[in-house]
Amino acid sequence: MPRLRTVLLLSNLAILALPVAGLWAPRLYESALVRQTESELVAQAAVLASVFREQMHVLSGASAPGTPPQPSPAALHMARRPGLDLAVDPILPPQPGDQPAAPADPAAIAAGQALTPVLRDAQLVTLASLRVTDRHGVIVATTSTDLGRGLTGWTEIARVLAGEPIASGMHQREPAKAAPEGISRTSAPRVFVALPVADPAGEVAGVVVLSRTPSSLADTIWGKRKPLIVLTLLLIAGGVALAAGISRLVTRPLRILVRRAQAVAAGEAMAIDPGRTGTREVAELSDAIARMARTLEQRAGYISGFAASVSHEFKTPMTAIRAAAELLDEHADSVSPEERRRLLGVVSDGVARLELLVRRLVELARADMTTRGEAAIAAVDPIVRRVAERYRQTGMTVAVTGAAGAARLPEDALDALMTTMLENAAAHATGAAVDIVVEADGDHVRITVRDDGPGTPPAHQVRAFEPFFTTARGQGGTGLGLPIVRAIVAGVGGSVTLLPTQAGAAFLISLPAAT
How far apart are CA 64 and CA 52, in angstroms? Predict the structure, then answer.
């Protein structure tokens, strides 16, 4: 699979290529070349039209040039309209050939003869095809060999003679003939511009027609190849530098995280250290992995300690059972009935102890799997009072006060929780009275279990919820009661706290309320 830095580099290069593709696809730059050619031809045509009009005026015998008519606002709007666009304007078929025509207007012929040297000199620089016709479309000045021929079939001339202030269009090129060499001969469309020559009365006295093939995109790029190559190299270098910067900012912290995660998988302790990261997302990922590693380490330590505690708790009754069994086996004939009963009692007590431990471990495992769900709702008051009544029947003094609604946990979990709390009180405060206070507190249901027994010594309070820690081992305590309570409460998003008291012991259980 590709590395992230490779993907970043390719993405940056693709982003750099998008503007080029955007210019190429709608032919924006080619249209700009066409419009540039069109504007140049319009400017040249305007100058030639002005010179041709002045020549006609002078050769007609007038003493001073006439004042040309002012164009109308509509004509100015048409003359200043947006230029040709390859994406919008069609490319018309080639212009029809010239045709025989009647003799041109004498004044136009005389003015055309005077203008012909100007046309030929201008063509050497502009590389455009230049023609001037009279009011009937007959050529009176040209840079070609079609003098005296008619061009009434040309689209742009017909539009100008029909009254348009300016006419331009694109036509397919004819096969190249003897013409000036230049880069413009390789482009497909040819631009034609026609401009009317107005007499003092405002009538069309002639038409100036110019045409030229614009430079192609390939020719333009080739002409700017050196700057474009430099720019391309700079863009590629920028893309590479950007990819390297992003790679260092993103991929380097990710590689560090991968190595540390692999170290955690290999069993190294505290191998995850968030350290310095480049972006917020990577920092959050690093912090999440660090928390996960610490959780896994704590879980591994808990399991290791739990296994050691289970082994220790099981070892004592199993050792007693084995010793009693060996004595009975080795001295079966010499053991008195009283000693046999005592040894069998040791075996029975050991088995009972093992059964209690197994049952408590199963309860702890079930408590660890307790989870909060939308459908898990337990009515607090009935369950608490039912468990209290069950222990009253055994002789314990239990009082329940207060009231609350429902808590968000399974009913059997709440029953097991209260049963464990009362068993814990019975084991540690024999003969003591137990008070249970139930109250609703906003989004929580609080249950306080208090007894008037000897309480928990301050030195033992910090270890009250540790598995297998108990001060009532002589009374059969397993040290799993409070851990079971904590597991049930934590599984549903609640908490259990050992409250400070002057006498006895008090526990506050907070459960999420069910609305």
Answer: 14
Please count the other Cβ atoms lying within 10 Å of the Cβ belonging to residue 498. Answer: 17
Compute and round to an integer the Cα radius of gyration of the chain.
Answer: 52
Kindly report, residue by residue over 43-93, the tens digit of the pLDDT. Answer: 899 899 888 888 887 776 654 455 555 554 544 544 555 578 887 888 899
User: Among 314, 376, 321, which Cα is nearest to 348's?
Assistant: 321
Structure tokens at 277: 């990261």
Per DSSP, which regions of 281-404 are E strands?
378-379, 397-403
H or E element, residue 10: helix 4-24
The pTM of the full predicted model, rounded to 2 decimals, is 0.46
- 275-326, pLDDT tens digit by residue? 566 667 777 777 887 787 777 777 776 666 667 666 766 776 788 888 888 8
Q: How far apart are alpha carbons 52 and 205 in whole angstroms?
A: 10
What are the structural domains, with CATH classification, of the chain? 4-215 (3.30.450.20), 228-311 (no CATH), 372-514 (3.30.565.10)
Phi/psi for 128 (5° steps) reads -95, 155
Q: Which DSSP helix (H) or strand (E) runs through 191?
A: strand 189-198
- In the predicted structure, residue 376 carries a pLDDT above the cut 60: yes
The answer to whether 291 touches 283, Cβ cutoff 8 Å, is: no
The secondary element (H helix, E strand) that includes residue 142 is: strand 139-142
Residue pair 351/318 in contact by the 8 Å Cβ criterion:
no
Distance (Å, whole) CA 76 – CA 362: 97
pLDDT band for position 21 (50/70/90)? low
Q: Which residues, other chains included, contact 159 with Cβ-Cβ below 8 Å and sequence gap of 6+?
A: 167, 194
Q: Which residues contact 421 (CB under 8 A, 6 or more apart)?
A: 449, 481, 485, 507, 509
Residues 6+ apart with CB under 8 A from 126: 40, 44, 212
Name residue 42's amino acid: V
Write the pLDDT tens digit of every residue in 182-238.
444 445 689 999 999 887 777 888 999 999 988 876 676 777 778 878 888 887 888
